[in-house]
Specification:
By secondary structure, the protein is α/β, with parallel strands linked by helices. The protein has six helices and four strands; from the N terminus they run βαβααβαβαα. The protein has helices at residues 21-35, 61-68, 87-92, 101-106, 121-124, 139-162, and strands at 9-15, 42-48, 95-98, 118-120. A four-stranded parallel sheet has the order 2-1-3-4. β3, α4 (101-106) and β4 form a beta-alpha-beta unit.
């Protein structure tokens, strides 16, 4: 593509299966970047790191619904990404965001992630603690999860761009 330059930064958002939290964070972060005029400067991807993560797994219907409530539509065929199979995403990332300390620990098994800044979404916002998995819970839990992720990403956007 002539005239288009590669994104300056690549952010990878990681959770267990890439069917709820990391998808929500990826899409919310893309919108925040666009609102700040940074859409072309930062590429955001997401993936799952757990043994049960699978390429193409369906995104949670509740995750789709709570994103739709804030004006974010996922394409009909959107599916999960398995980082065990798509290790190039780890290798290409400049910064990796995780939802939990457990996921940060799981990244140690991936040499592609070695030496990269890895922050929990709460750390990004200057806080501590994990973003709990909303799966198998009601829509209100998914809404609270979305709102917590959104708050942390908005609060930590400058830090993310500097990481």
């Amino acid at each position: 593509m002539s005239g288009a330059s590669a994104p300056r930064r690549r952010v990878l958002v990681v959770c267990h299966a890439n069917t709820s939290r990391s998808i929500i964070a990826e899409k919310v972060l893309e919108r925040l970047l666009a609102e700040h005029g940074l859409a072309g400067q930062v590429e955001v991807r997401s993936g799952g790191i757990a043994p049960y993560a699978r390429d193409g797994s369906l995104v949670s219907l509740d995750a789709r619904l709570v994103l739709r409530e804030v004006g974010i539509e996922l394409p009909p065929g959107a599916g999960a990404t398995d980082l065990k199979r798509q290790r190039h995403l780890l290798a290409d990332a400049d910064v990796i965001l995780v939802m939990t300390e457990q996921q940060r620990g799981m990244l140690r098994a991936f040499p592609e992630a070695a030496g990269k800044p890895v922050l929990t979404v709460r750390e990004l916002a200057g806080e501590s603690g994990d973003i709990a998995d909303p799966s198998m819970q009601d829509e209100d839990v998914f809404r609270r999860c979305r709102d917590e992720i959104t708050r942390c990403l908005a609060r930590g956007l400058e830090r993310l761009l500097a990481a």
